[in-house]
Design goal:
By secondary structure, the chain is α/β, with parallel strands linked by helices. It is 30% helix and 24% strand. The chain is globular.
Length: 323
């Protein structure tokens, strides 16, 4: 693996065993996360984004099968590790910021107590030192009156504050990779920007790598170094952020961008007709073809395109680019 990359996912495929059969959820996904970069994985809900994240953490549901692929983290293939070895990586080297901060904080303990437990895992610090460290981390994630906030309980925190507390916990682990799974979903727009700014500062100051999972292109565009667009379990386009917004190639990416409001709200918004397929639906050819305005009869409904890259590392999986 390249020494520039902290994480490399190679040809990962994951399937689910259901009563009616075995169904593919992620097909042949490859994704690199360089050190100190924010890499975005974008797509509608149910497209496989969170599955990809859970594969990295090896926290997939019991009825899933990883049918192929490797996930290298710092050169180690995570798929080959035992559960015990994975526990040593989860939380200390790879941290997760989940969609719903409510579920990650224990309502029975103060937020400071929960943070200090992580800071002082090896019990090497005195209580005043642990408090000092906790206060510093809270200040880093812009929690006002940090020291007083340590003695508060989760229910006394607003949604945005809870999300900051979770980021603080991820920071205290000194994780090299933070997986942020829709980290701003439940928050209003101004708080979303604040949370994204905090993640961006962490990247810049600590050199942390961040996998940012989102369905909101507007949000990720501003902060990510590279965008990977996922549709129905496949990555259909990947490009450096600037390049992606200037020149999206895949019809799905174009449609996603057209459904975003422009800065002055002058353009009429377009919607993408239809629904993303569920994993039990069998679609011949390109998975997007039933919803695609540019689909070519006789090609797109028969031939499944592969991901092809040009010289600028702009990759697209679309039959329109196969000639």
């Amino acid at each position: 693996m390249s020494h520039m990359n902290l994480l490399e996912i190679k040809n990962l495929s994951v399937a689910f065993k259901l009563e009616s059969g075995t169904y593919d959820a992620i097909y042949n996904v490859s994704l690199d996360i360089p050190k100190g970069n924010i890499i975005a994985l974008v797509g509608e809900s149910g497209c496989g984004k969170s599955m990809t994240a859970m594969s990295i953490l090896r926290l997939l549901p019991k009825n899933s099968i990883t049918s192929s692929g490797e996930i290298y983290f710092n050169g180690t293939n995570l798929i080959k590790l035992s559960e015990k070895e994975m526990r040593g990586i989860r939380g200390s080297h790879i941290a997760l910021i989940p969609q719903d901060p409510m579920t990650s904080l224990n309502p029975l303990y103060t937020v400071g107590n929960q943070l200090m437990e992580i800071i002082n895992k090896d019990k090497s610090l005195s209580k005043p030192d642990a408090i000092k460290k906790a206060t510093e981390v809270f200040e880093m994630v812009k929690i006002p009156n940090a020291k007083d906030k340590l003695s508060m309980y989760p229910h006394e925190f607003s949604g945005g504050m809870k999300q900051r507390a979770i980021i603080a916990m991820a920071l205290t682990t000194k994780a090299e990779l933070i997986i942020a799974d829709e980290p701003t979903t439940a928050l209003d727009v101004t708080i979303q920007a604040q949370i994204m700014n905090i993640l961006n500062e962490i990247k810049n100051e600590l050199g942390t790598s961040i996998l940012l999972i989102s369905h909101d292109l507007n949000l990720v565009g501003e902060y990510s170094d590279e965008i990977n667009v996922m549709y129905a379990g496949k990555i259909v386009e990947k490009a450096a952020s600037e390049e992606f917004f200037k020149k999206p190639l895949h019809p799905y990416s174009e449609a996603l961008l057209k459904s975003l409001p422009d800065k002055n709200y002058e353009r009429k918004l377009k919607t993408i007709e239809g629904q993303p397929p569920n994993i039990q639906e069998i679609i011949n050819g390109c998975r997007f073809n039933p919803r695609c305005e540019k689909a070519i009869e006789g090609i797109c409904n028969k031939k499944s395109p592969s991901l092809l890259c040009n010289g600028d590392n702009h990759c697209v999986s679309c039959n329109l680019f196969e000639h």
